[in-house]
Amino acid sequence: MRIAGGTAKRITKRIINFIFVIWGVVTLSFCLQVFTGTDPAEMIVRKVNVFATEEQIQAVREELGLDAPFLERYADYIKGVLTGDLGTAITNRQPVIENIKDALPVTCMLVVMAMAWVIIFTVLIAAISVIRKGGIFDNVMRIICIIGICVPSFWLALILLTAFAVQIPIFSVISDGSFKSLILPSAAMAFPIICIAARVLRAAVLNELKSDYVTYARARGFSNAQIVYGEVLRNALPAAITLFAQYCAALFGTSALVESVFSIQGLGIYLMDSCESMDIYGISGSILVCGVLFVLFNTLADLLSSAICPAYRRKAV
């Protein structure tokens, strides 16, 4: 009963924290619209008529409710977010939520593939490096990870595109949204993260190997591989899981450079196009989605770490 009560308390605490953080993200997104110094009404009118009068701009401002008091606009924005209304994009006069729905699926596929590479190779590299600590593999991977951490993902994307789509035409230059076309961009996004996460997980595993239960397992005759894969890796995962979640959420907002290299019309490109055209509704809507995803992934990572690692669960309560 105590375990069940502790679990319920922990989940309730995470949900409350999640709600408050989401409220903060929504508030910051609203402030982005209000305090940027950009008048959406003027941009909408002058997009149609460069020589529009102040009376025409004021009429659109009243139509959009931009002349309402701050608290009234804030309440309307909260209501709109709860009902899925993020405003109308200035660029194409379509609902922002519809633009995001069109751009988000391909970015989701790209991020999922990238994180799949991260999970597979991070665990393998970290585990083998620990088992063969100080060996050739460990030293080579240390050098590769140091180089990989310094390599920008967009530069790596250009190298991969040139090598495997131009010089050796295995993949197409322009993505068509298929699984094969997303292999190169997902690899470009995943490689720097793998280099960072592998070093973090390796350090966490080596720290766990100093624990008393590892000494006891060795005294019982368990091999190093059995200890690492059996208990140590599970107890070292929370640090890596938190890192995975943060990078996974960040990739939704930072995917623009890789998407632009491979001509992928995803969320990152939409955010970049909105910034170039000063579409304040598109910018705030995209940032709001990225912020919510960031909070959601971190909350799920916290719950997953608690479920996998008992020691982490005891610390989190």
Walk me through what this model shows.
It is a single chain. It is flat and about 85 Å long. The two termini are 15 Å apart. It has 14 helices and no strands. The chain has 317 residues and is an all-alpha fold. The longest helix has 36 residues. It has two domains: 81 residues, no CATH class; 221 residues, Orthogonal Bundle (MetI-like fold). 79% of the residues lie in helices and 0% in strands.
What name does CATH use for the topology of the largest domain?
A: MetI-like fold
Shape, per Cα inertia axes: flat
DSSP, total strands = 0
The number of helical runs is 14
Number of domains: 2
Helix content: over 70%
Biggest beta sheet attributes: none
Rg from C-alpha positions? 24 Å
- Please state the second-level CATH architecture of the largest domain: Orthogonal Bundle
Mean pLDDT level: 80
Fraction of residues in β-strands: under 5%
Gap between N and C termini, in Å?
A: 15 Å
CATH homologous superfamily grouping of the largest domain? MetI-like
CATH class of the largest domain: Mainly Alpha
Question: What would you call the structural class?
Answer: mainly alpha
Which residues sit in consecutive blocks of at least 5 with pLDDT less than 50?
Answer: none
Order of H and E elements: HHHHHHHHHHHHHH
Subcellular location: Cell membrane
Keywords: Cell membrane, Membrane, Transmembrane, Transmembrane helix, Transport
GO biological process, one term: transmembrane transport
Family: Belongs to the binding-protein-dependent transport system permease family.
